[in-house]
Write a structure and sequence with these properties.
It is a single chain. The chain is built from 15 helices and 25 strands. The protein is an alpha/beta fold. A hairpin with a 2-residue loop joins strand 15 and strand 16. Helix 4 crosses helix 10 and helix 14 packs across helix 15. The protein starts with a helix and ends with a helix. InterPro entries: Mur-like_cat_sf, Mur_ligase_C, Mur_ligase_C_dom_sf, Mur_ligase_cen, Mur_ligase_N, MurE/MurF_N, UDP-N-AcMur-Glu-dNH2Pim_ligase. It comes from Candidatus Gemmiger excrementigallinarum. Its EC number is 6.3.2.-.
């Protein structure tokens, strides 16, 4: 595709060079530029793509897209100036990859907690209905026969459009994706019109340098999804829903437990506990007033809420009821209240809970199963708000019978400082809750298995689906599921 064709999608002005130049790819990282790539200069918190434009040119870039002129570029190299580089990248990518979202049923999910689980539940329901589905989110991108890790929950726009094109070319007819507030703010999903947008819940998170200036801004960006979708499915129980729907342009469908809603679950759901499984059975009533029975292989009220969002989405898409029941019953989400198969008289679950609200929700749900003891293994990531550490410590001390405090991804921050903040939170939450501090996470997992007893539930939280551990400047292989299973086998007589 030549540059002139691409520029029709933007407000770009050609400052120099030939608009007939052929563009073979799009790129925003100068280190990845190959001959024929159109390099888009993205401004960032720590680096600015404009500073690397000359490096991109030397690597064979077909042209440069920038917000301001860059000195020192070859005179014959096409240079295009745009108002917003990030928005332009999204517009260019949509045109370059042939508007792939229009070939798919697009379902976008936003909220603080539950995005990943809700996405997987919807994908399981769609699959049970015979649809070929792609997933994009915290757990990476996948479709039948393909899986890849991602650096961001919502990929950069050119990566996202490339993946959507590959997904459609692979025969997928639906895409379920997590839409983060930063994905909306940073124009990663600009130009995509969603068939369904889903709101799970909202609590303070991602507030700080490089993210959002305030909770109000965080909420405002979440709300943008409901001006870019045909139908909005929202949690009627969440106190922020009214604000999320400010200026919405979509048809609204509600779900919930406590308040009247289009899809409402009865509050008296049954807890299911079997070896290697914690689940829930519940009844939900739709707009037609008919109660329907459902079952999930994951525990707690929050899981019922996530399932209600999936049920409402299935209804909007006119999927068969049997597919909804089958999809929900069989869905397993990696690293989200995921039971670890062990030959043991206790239950171990992995979860991604890495802030106070998520930890409180999870531990409250597990406490409802009346374990002999509720043991939690957790740490907190470095380079993140200290408030998160205090909150995690408080929640775990209030709700667990034993806390095993350890490392998470320290990211170069001294682990001793992180652990000290967690200890402060523990004292605030409940100074009488026993805890042990084991800096090495592998040893902390071993300790949990050595000290768990019959009927206990052990929650290993913070990393969930992750398979690496960032310790200082090193990134180490670290799959908690494998570590737990291997150690447990070694313990067998």
């Amino acid at each position: 595709m030549n540059l002139c064709e691409l520029l029709q999608a933007t407000d770009g002005v050609l400052l120099q060079g030939d608009a007939r130049t052929e563009v073979r790819s799009l790129c925003y990282d100068s280190r990845a530029v190959t001959p024929g790539a159109l390099f888009v200069c993205l401004p960032g918190l720590h680096t600015d793509g404009h500073d690397f434009a000359r490096q991109a040119a030397a690597a064979g870039a077909a042209g440069i897209v920038c917000e301001r002129p860059v000195a020192g570029l070859p005179e014959d190299l096409p240079v295009v100036q745009v108002t917003h580089s990030r928005r332009a990248l999204a517009q260019l990518a949509i045109r370059f990859y042939g508007e792939p979202a229009k070939r798919l049923t697009m379902i976008g999910i936003t909220g603080t907690k539950g995005k990943t689980t809700t996405a997987h539940l919807i994908a399981a329901v769609l699959t049970a209905a015979g649809r070929r589905v792609g997933l994009i989110g915290t757990n990476g991108v996948c479709w039948p026969g393909f899986r890849q890790a991602l650096d961001h929950t919502t990929p950069e726009s050119s990566d996202l459009q490339r993946l959507l094109r590959q997904m459609a070319d692979a025969g997928c007819d639906a895409c379920v994706m997590e839409v983060s507030s930063l994905g909306l703010k940073m124009d990663r999903v600009t130009g995509i019109r969603y068939d369904i947008g889903i709101f799970t819940n909202l609590s303070p998170d991602h507030i700080g340098p490089g993210e959002h200036a305030s909770f109000a801004e965080y909420r405002a960006w979440k709300s943008v999804l409901f001006r870019r979708c045909r139908v909005g499915i929202v949690n009627g129980d969440d106190l922020q829903t009214e604000a999320i729907l400010t200026q919405h342009t979509c048809r609204v469908v509600t779900y919930g437990i406590d308040r009247p809603a289009d899809w409402r679950a009865a509050p008296d759901f049954a807890l299911l506990r079997q070896p290697g499984m914690l689940g829930v059975a519940f009844t939900a009533t739709g707009p037609d007033g008919i109660p329907r029975a459902f079952q999930l292989a994951m525990p707690g009220r929050f899981s019922v809420c996530n399932a209600l969002a999936a049920i409402a989405a299935a209804d909007v898409l006119h999927l068969p009821g049997t597919a909804v029941q089958t999809g929900l019953r069989t869905a397993v989400v990696e690293g989200r209240v995921e039971p670890v198969p062990l030959d043991a008289p206790f239950t171990v679950v992995l979860d991604y809970a890495h802030n106070e609200a998520a930890a409180e929700n999870l531990l409250t749900a597990l406490r409802a199963y009346q374990p002999a003891r509720l043991i939690v293994v957790f740490g907190c990531g470095g380079g993140r708000s200290r408030v998160r550490r205090f909150g995690m410590g408080e929640a775990c001390a209030r709700l667990a019978d034993l806390c095993i405090v350890t490392e998470d991804n320290s990211r170069g921050e001294p682990l001793a400082d992180i652990l000290a903040d967690i200890r402060t939170g523990l004292r605030r939450g409940n100074p009488d809750t026993p805890f042990v501090e084991i800096p090495d996470r592998r040893q902390a997992l071993y300790y949990a298995l050595d000290h768990a007893g019959p009927g206990d539930i052990v929650a290993v939280i913070g990393k969930g689906h992750e398979t690496t551990l960032q310790r200082g400047d090193e990134t180490l292989p670290f799959c908690e599921r494998e570590i737990l299973q291997t150690y447990m086998k070694q313990k067998q007589p």
